[in-house]
Amino acid sequence: MALQPPSTNTLYPTLDALITTINAHAKTQGYAVAKARSKARAGTTVKVNLRCSLGGVPRFSSSSSSTAITNSTSTNNNNTTNPAAITTDNTPPPPTRQRQRPSPKTNCPFDAYAVLKKQNSGQWELHVRNGEHNHPAFRPEESAVHRRDALTQEVYDEIRER
Question: Which residues, other chains included, contact 38 with Cβ-Cβ below 8 Å and sequence gap of 6+?
C-alpha cells in the first residue's frame, strides 16, 4: 500500500493547525511529518519546509565512525598521562568516543512546504513537492513525533516539575 500525501486544497488558520492536521493524516497512513527549516521576513515566519520524519541521512557513517572513536589520552608503563594529550589549561580534553545508535533515517524523498498567504488574512497553505516515501508504513508508537503529540498538557507540566 502506497503512503498517501496530505490534501493540499485546504487553508489553515495557523501553522500549528496545519502541522497538527498533516500529522493526524500521516498517523493514519504510517508516517510522520517534521519541520526541516523555516524562512522569516521581518520577524514573521512566512515559509516552513516539511519532510518525512525518516527524511535525511543517518548521522553516523562508516567514514565518521573511525575518527569518532579515538582515545583522548594514552598512558605509558608508569601510569602517567601523556603530556601531548593535556590542553593548555592542564585539563585533559573531553572524551571523543560516542555511542553509535542505529538511525531510522532512510533519506525519504517526501518533501512539502507551508506558505503564509497574506492575501487570505494570514492563513497557511500546504504544497507537496514530492509525496512519495521510500519506506513501509510504521506504527504511530514507533515515531517520536506521534509519541510527543500524544502527551497531554498535564504530562508536560509534570515533566517540567521534575
Answer: 45, 47, 48, 49
Neighbours of 6 (CB within 10 A): 19
Neighbours of 82 (CB within 10 A): 13
The alpha-carbon radius of gyration of the chain (Å, integer) is 23
pTM of the model: 0.62
**CA gap 153, 122 in Å, rounded:** 27
115: closest CA among 3, 39, 4, 22?
39
Convert the pLDDT of each residue in 105-152 to its tens digit: 888 899 999 999 876 678 999 999 998 988 888 887 777 777 777 667
Q: 87: part of which helix (H) or strand (E)?
A: none
Within 10 angstroms of residue 22's Cβ, the number of other Cβ atoms is 21
